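It would be a great kindness if you could assist me with a short task in structural biology. The matter concerns a single protein, recorded as an amino acid sequence and a row of backbone structure tokens. The record follows directly beneath this note:
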Amino acid sequence: MATAADVRSIFENRLKENDVDFHPADLERTRDEKYLKRVLAHCEKDAKQAADMLWDILTWRKNVGASNINEDNIRMDYVKEGVFFPRGRDVDGSLLLVFKSKMHIKGQRDYDELKKIMIYWFDRVEREENGKKISMFFDMDGTGLSNMDMELIKYLITLFKCYYPYFLNYIIIYNMPWVLSAAFKVVKTLLPAKAVEKMKFVTKDTLKDIVAPEQALACWGGKDNYVFEFIPESRSSEHTPKKVTFAEQSENQHSLGEMLRIVPNDTIIFKTDNDEISGQFTITNMDESAISFKIRTTSPEKFRVRPSSGTLAAGMSQSVLIVVQPGFHLRTVTKDRFLVMSVQIPKTDMTSKDLADIWQSSPSSKIDEYRLKCQFPEKDLPKNGNLLDKVSEKDSLSNSLNTLQVHYELLNRDVKRMKIFQFLTLLFSGVSVVLGYLIYNSTSIEDRYCERM
């Protein structure tokens, strides 16, 4: 029986013959026993086929720059819209990667950027799940014809089929409108026989057979009231563990080896001043060299951060002001978090491009991370807000528009049929009149001929 060692041996021999410069992170996959077993299982224990697939995977990853795709070089505005996001698990314990079809309109976004975002989520989930299988969840509820993007769906299927081995558990299609059923018949033709068996068409009533109510979103009839908000990936598990500041530190405590001292060190205290809610903290460079810092949050749309990035010479400090944007329910803001990251740089007067290159090329072990919570005075927390109402209102309006679109398409089809029927009726009526006239005229001539006889 073929083994991972057999696959690696065939691949390495081919690599010696071709001398291709693959990304170092991708070459690590060829040394990962678990990953090679996934490729082998995907190819039904055929070592030669598995080695070919491994070569194709690394070639594809090199061509698309998959290992360099991260939150700094993808369209984060697309990501934060929540078209794709992981949430919940199926009955086998596999993570659900959700595609909210009604939030995607074909041709409205840059397709190449969408592909990068799909690769970002596949790579991130693969890391976070340690290569375990996931289920692709197509949420088709409220979907209209304008949302159906076969090119995008084909690309998703291709990722599972060719570049992420033994990674698919189920393809779950939820509440698919009957007008789109033909499209998924095309999808079936793209899948091998075993994968077709993984396709599960479910409704709100039958979803529980695949996804338990506790794991299903409320909009699917489940018990999970989760509303998507993007949280940056933590890559702390890779390489040497990162240094992270936690709440156990006292207000001004600084641990040796950490680049920054942050005051307050774990919680940003927000206050209300002239109807503006703001908080502040100070970062100090405790390192001997200059550093570059970045500040991220789980909900960028809710906060204005000044400055959100910058550089600090050794021993220098910087105050950071955070203001809550108007119109957001404070009870949702209290759950948000901030992440301060820092990395060593040779000098402070560097160009934006040079700084970006340093951030991108620095291994995760060289980047310090500090996590901060938010705290608001209890009296400032309103009992009622409008953010969730607006989200619900937006979803309701979107559903209504999509339903209206489906009805319009059906009505338009019926009108076309009616026009054809009317045309045929008029045509037959015209032919009947002409035939009647000819018959009548012929009869009249015969009668007049008989009279003369």
